[in-house]
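Q: Joint fold for the lines below.
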Amino acid sequence: MGHMARRGMRWASSFLLAWLCLFAPWAVSAALGAVDVAMELRIVAGDDSEQAAQAVERLKAAGDPAALPALQAFDDGNLRVDAGGNVFIKTKNGLKPAVPGGAAQPAGGLKTIEPDNTVRRALLPALAALKLTSPDRDVRLAAAEELAKRPSDDVATMVKTALAKEQDSAVKTKLNLVIAQLDLASTDPARRINAIELIRQSGNIDFKADLERMVGKGGNATPSEKDPKVRDAASAALSSIETRVLLIGMVGHLFYGVSLGSVLLLAALGLAITFGLMRVINMAHGEMLMIGAYTTFVVQNFFQKSLPGAFDWYLVAAIPAAFCVCYAIGAVLERSVIQFLYGRPLETLLATWGISLGLIQTVRLIFGANNVAVANPSWLAGGYELLPGIVLTYSRIAVIVFAIVVVAFVWLWMNKTPVGLRVRAVTQNREMAAAMGIPTKRVDLGTFGLGSGIAGLGGVALSQLGNVGPELGQSYIVDSFMVVVLGGVGKLVGTIAGALGLGIVNKLLEPAAGAVLGKIIILVLIILFIQKRPQGIFALKGRAAEAG
Amino acid sequence: MNALAFARRLLSPRGWIAFGVLAIIGVVLIPTLNSAVSPESALGVSDRVITLLGKFVCYATAALALDLIWGFAGMLSLGHGVFFALGGYAMGMYLMLGIRGQGVYRSNLPDFMVFLDWKELPWFWHGFDNFAFAAFAVMWVPGLLAYAFGYFAFRSRIRGVYFSIITQALTYALMLLFFRNDTGLGGNNGLTDFKQLYGYPLALASTKRALYVASVVVLLFSFLLCRAIVTSKAGRVLRAVRDAESRVMFLGYDPRSYKLFAWTFSAVLCGIAGALYVPQVGIINPSELQPANSIEMAIWAAVGGRGTLFGAALGAFVVNGAKSWFTVALPELWLYVLGALFITVTLFMPDGIVGAVQRLVEKRTRAAAPAPAPGGAAS
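A: Joint structure:
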């Protein structure tokens, strides 16, 4: 009894399946063999392009992966047909039959067939539809993208089948969008709402124009959507997408702002240290950046010539090189000029300006007045595309990371080493520190060297972002001073806040006001800010504050 | 300081005589040599030299203006190029409208506007076809900017290097602004191709001579005005502010108004210098606003001797004379020379040429008569 019932069930279910096969829309694709691939390919290879296009459509509807190699070859121009109408694919190793089991050898009179426009219009979606069954995830993703560009009702079934089997979320999203796009044009309001919901969830900006048309925004004022319910759903989805675009845009600006802030931080950090310690306004600081960048250039050339195998790692070698070169130059400057000018900040300013002129001219005489090319190593080339138009380049990300590392090192050096302790002591009270036996002169020398060395590191970073020329430092000096003024003196956190604040505000203002007006607005803001907090964001309290 | 002693000495008969001799040389002798003596003869002064001297005289006026606030009020401005350029631009706008119809495009608009396809003058150009209006703008535009900037800066007690940095940022920002084509002042190329000033063609030697004489007269008057300020009671307060601002405040003075006055006056003076400079060199463009130019002004004053007024003007002549010579003869070396000037002056000659000469003279007089050192030298 039970046995009979089970058999009856099986029979019923297979009947049901057959019935489904007959009447359900995807019947054709499920019933393999309903289309003879070899036969259709003959028509495709025939002379009549209308007929060929129809054959391609049938192959697409059949969804038999067996047709894929031939159609791909057709698209690539590698399809050949012989006098007997047998179709072959040209490969590197010669000809092979387009369908397994076809004629093995051409029967003479081989000719190349290429799709004309009529055929190609059918061919591309057909290829994409067939590729949805590919085991390769990237191929499926590309196929789904292709289908999303030219959706048509006949692929819907195939997409749905593929969707049911699909495991990869990225491909799934794309396939869902294909369906949504088709449903958006459907006459059934429920399906349209469904589609809009899908679009809202995906947050895909490609649908912005469609949705705008539906609610009557943008170009045409009258909404194309008649159903108020659907229209409400559409406007909700639209505002959600707009928020997303705005958010991503903000993230992009924020990223550029943080990136600029890191550059400013690297440029201003050394300045803040030397100014904080010895009240020395080092106008040649920008030139230390420039020399750091040129050191990178020299190291790059050395690697190009002597170690081409390790070229990608030249940047790693340039970091200590730039630091040492700038440290040495800074130490020489301190000994030869600056140590005689302590306590006369304005004179130091002029003297260091004179030094900067000499450095610029020297670099110009050695390397020429034109910009030199510093290449990104291959591991810094390229970037991550957040949205069309917003690319987070790896070099900028690297500069941000680099700035964090440098700041961490400076912090450790200042707060956790005996040398840092001395530096802080001299910063707070020079006479008292000297009385305690701290060799203030040596501390000055070391600190000035360190400040210059950090600028050299900044130069390495700058060389990866833009042009390297003798005037490189001049364009950063004003901004670095703004950072120091804004951040206040003698506090690392002030410099960081000043640099990031300046960078971010700059980049947020730029799209609205333009680069130049943005800079002017920032200057005005800084002047107004100093009204409120003359000592910067993080002011030193007590006696140290009076010394300025 | 020697400054006070020097300013006093100018009141002495010997000082007046020296001033008179220099004035006669500048206003009478050199123009006469230019117009009456052939340039080939040993004493002849060519038109080129007249224009060059006129340029230096304008620089000297600017250096004088800078010395007034740096040497006497202790504020090192690294943004005086702004006021110089603003005066220059105001004059340039007048000269630009003087071209009307004679430009490349034969348009009533300046050439660069035709080039940008503008149909009418921007609003701030109106009135600049009137000489009196332009001459007035030469003074009030820099003056107003300086007043507004100084009002905020001094109110928040920005001083010392902070003040220098902020003024440098000011000139940097304005340079960026003037580089824009949309600003409506010729962008990158600035204003140039001037034809005539108040009806007199600029190409004529007599016009050049007149401009030179006007520049010298302005320099002499500025000198007298600055000297009057420096030796007045207000000047004394200014010097007190320079040496100990907090103490001045505790004594009941408001240093802000004194500083603001000197600062604004200095800016106006600089604007006038710029206005006289532009018709002589024939161009004004945003490169005048480069921070480097403003810092160079400081070195003029420093080389001559800051806080002496006379020294600042002298320094402008010396440095720019050297620049003219080097950029022709040894162009690669000029930046080294300039850099070395900055360093040596700050390290070895804090009082500049005037101070060095004074010390030499004092040494000699002391050697001749071992009398006690002249009193009144504040430190």
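Q: Anything notable?
A: The interface with chain B takes residues 279, 281, 283, 337, 340-341, 344-351, 353-358, 360-361, 365, 474, 477-478, 481-482, 484-485, 516-517, 519-520, 523, 526-528, 530-532, 534, 548 of chain A (CB under 8 Å). Chain A is about 70% helix and 5% strand.
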